[in-house]
Specification:
Blueprint: E1 3-8, H1 10-13, E2 22-25, H2 29-39, E3 43-49, H3 50-55, H4 57-61, E4 70-74, H5 83-96
Parallel strand pairs: 1-2, 1-3, 3-4
């Protein structure tokens, strides 16, 4: 059975533990990339804080065409960079053929 996880800075992700999401505290992109390579097949969805996702962009790109895991950037402790919304917008545009999300 697949899991749902959230990876990033402890302060940004710890609240997810209360709703049953597996929390994976990672402070540097090298540890995050290693975790992803070793455990990606265990997850259906993996939320990653935007700052960590930006630092691991090359590793995350390897999973862009894979069915699982769906890697979704979320705002971290430093705030929202907008990367998560841009990625979701690109997925929606690809799925429906045009950008239908408001700016």
């Amino acid at each position: 059975m697949y899991k749902i996880g959230v990876m990033g800075e402890r302060d940004a992700i710890y609240g997810f533990a209360g709703v049953g999401v597996e929390v994976i505290p990672v402070d540097d992109p090298v540890s995050g990339a290693r975790f992803l390579r070793e455990h990606a097949e265990d997850y259906a969805v993996l939320y990653v804080t935007e700052a960590l996702a930006a630092a691991m962009a090359g590793e995350i790109a390897r999973y862009d065409t894979a069915v699982t895991p769906a890697i979704i950037p979320i705002p971290g402790a430093a705030g929202n960079t907008g990367e998560g919304l841009r990625r979701v917008g690109a997925w929606v545009a690809k799925a429906v053929g045009s950008d239908i999300l408001p700016d």
